[in-house]
Amino acid sequence: MKEGKTILAVKVNYAVAERVRHFCRERGLKYGFFVEKAILEQLAREELKEDLVDLKNLRELEKRAISLDEYLKKPRV
User: Fold this and answer.
1) Shortest CA distance to 34 belongs to which of 17, 9, 11?
2) pLDDT, tens digit, for every residue of 1-59?
3) Structural domain for 46, as ranges
4) For the chain, what is the domain count?
5) Distance (Å, whole) CA 32 – CA 38
């Protein structure tokens, strides 16, 4: 991943933006740091959801799995 900073311009609801600014100002947080951290945390949550769906699907396939010994005994072309 490329290091450094870039600009990410997005449109958000005005009230949300004001709430974030107020929150950061009250706590002495840098706005950019707070937003970047929030984005990373949301990405992690979304990836976890995808992983859980994959795990559920693989659990279903696991029921049809055979052992390695059984697989190796099968004749091959």
Assistant:
1) 17
2) 778 999 999 999 999 999 999 999 999 999 999 999 999 999 999 999 999 999 999 99
3) 14-73
4) 1
5) 10
3-state secondary structure string across the chain: CCCCCCCCCCCCCHHHHHHHHHHHHHHCCCHHHHHHHHHHHHHHHHHHHHHHHHHHHHHHHHCCCCCHHHHHHCCCC
- Residue at 9 is within a domain: no
Alpha-carbon distance of 32 to 24, in angstroms, equals: 10
Name residues whose C-beta falls within 8 Å of residue 21's C-beta, 6 or more positions apart in sequence. 31
Q: Take residue 53 and report the two structure tokens written for it.
A: 């769906």
**Looking at the domain assignment, is residue 44 inside a domain?**
yes
